[in-house]
Amino acid sequence: MNSNDFERKICNRVIKFPGVDGLSALEMEGIVSQVEEKIKTIESRLKIADSSKLAILAAYDFAAELYNLRQRSETNQTADSKKIDELVEKLRKTLGEEALEPPREHLP
Questions:
Q1: Whether this model's pTM surpasses 0.85
Q2: pLDDT on residue 27
Q3: Angle made by CA atoms 48, 52, 54, in degrees to the nearest 5
């Protein structure tokens, strides 16, 4: 067991969780708490007692959330890029093309 590894009881089972580089013990504990909460929510909603099925459904739910976040992030990046291009074009029109050209190096 690495120094960052820790054990936690979930679904009446003690599970050893590997440490994650860059995360504190408190952050890792928070992640495990989110997993446990997700499992409890699914268990109460679907009335499933099988911990393996619950774990898979929780993983699926987290993966779906991650997918949606990535999609939104890509959409936001595209919109941001478009807005920046529009602003640059407005600046060019306002200031003139020569104002936005990179400075030329002085030749000897």
A1: no
A2: 95
A3: 45
